[in-house]
Amino acid sequence: MTRAILIDKTDDGQSASLTDVTLPALEDGQVAVEVAYSTLNYKDALALTGAAPVVRSFPMVPGIDLSGIVRESRAPSLQPGDRVVLNGWGVGEKHWGGLGERAHLNADWLVKLPDGISLKQAMAIGTAGYTAMLCVMALEAHGLTPASGEVVVTGASGGVGSVAVALLAARGYRVAAVTGRLAEAGYLTGLGATSVLDRAELTGTPRALGKERWAGAVDVAGGVVLANVLSMMAYRGVVAACGLAGGRDLPTTVTPFILRGVTLAGVDSVMCPRPDRLTAWQRLANELDMSKLEAMVTEVPLAKVPAVAPRFLDGQVRGRIVVPVNPALG
Ligand code: NDP
């Protein structure tokens, strides 16, 4: 038995609470991980609230992320005592996830934590931060450098946005942070943003082409915000699109692509191949200013997770939420 958040669904609706659960038996190729920290991402909020059909089977232990220590291994690649991080692979959606004291997971899904990242920092980064790094990698794979020009980050006060701002600033990019919460301007400049824009500037009806403003973009919003960003990209600009916080539609035209050579690069963290994950985590260890994480983090105890989740859907969460499950593990 282990303590975990459990989402269940009955005829009366969906519920989520902290309870005792029996984990499925450990199989060949799997490891048992004692969870030190988990976290809450936008997707966890969708799962916990039932606002979108993220959970594929019930009952489900949610949590698309965890960091912890391997306690038992039935896979040659990992040994008891290894410090590991997990992001995605359908964990917390199809497979029981990280919002509990222990998890049984396929060893192939786990990344050994690079030196220089603590178990807590790994979850301050979490899927949001690892996705931010995948976005930076996508921009740079398309030739973006700090000399190319300014990079815009939408949803900048959220999890992906906050880490993207910090990462890009640390690499020497000028970063325009777009937010619906101008009260967070000081927070965003503290992370390294060189300018802060009101989201309202990007929510009007998109034109086919606007003024050329940005060489690169990290977009978590989708919808009309992404359409406006596309119309304002500089010639041969590149946009890494990873989110739908503002909507899953995309009311754009082909004009930015065929007249300005703009690239729209999709970013997915869940099924991202292992080599890219290893690169992303090593680059996070090398490049992210870990002192910036402190300003981003709010801690929420495991028992409070179901109550806090709805705040994501109202766009109320700043930065990253970390769930200390067993912080004594380090
Ligand atoms: P957060 O809730 O932490 O951040 C989202 C931010 O988007 C908010 O903080 C807010 O920032 C902004 N926002 C909220 N509502 C709107 C709106 N209507 N229009 C435009 N912007 C809005 O979520 P995460 O950072 O964890 O995730 C962001 C998005 O990225 C989500 O859609 C998530 O599903 C997606 N995602 C995708 C991944 C992938 O693999 N492709 C992986 C991780 C996340 P502000 O107030 O500053 O404007």
Q: Approximately how much helix is present in the residues?
A: 25-40%
| Unreliable parts | none
Helix and strand composition category = alpha/beta
Mind summarizing the main beta sheet?
A: 7 strands, mixed
What gyration radius follows from the Cα positions, in whole Å? Answer: 20 Å
- Total beta strand runs: 15
The H-and-E topology, N to C, reads as EEEHEEEEHEHEHEEHEHEHHEHHE
Report how far apart the termini are: 23 Å
The proportion of strand residues reads 25-35%
Shape verdict: globular
Bound molecules: NADPH dihydro-nicotinamide-adenine-dinucleotide phosphate
Number of helices: 10
Q: For the residues shown, what is the average pLDDT?
A: 97
In short:
The chain has helices spanning 42-49, 119-141, 159-170, 185-191, 223-231, 255-260, 274-287, 290-296, 305-308, 310-313; strands at 2-10, 13-21, 30-40, 65-73, 83-87, 102-106, 110-112, 151-153, 175-179, 195-198, 214-219, 233-241, 263-266, 297-299, 320-324. It is α/β, with parallel strands linked by helices and 330 residues long.
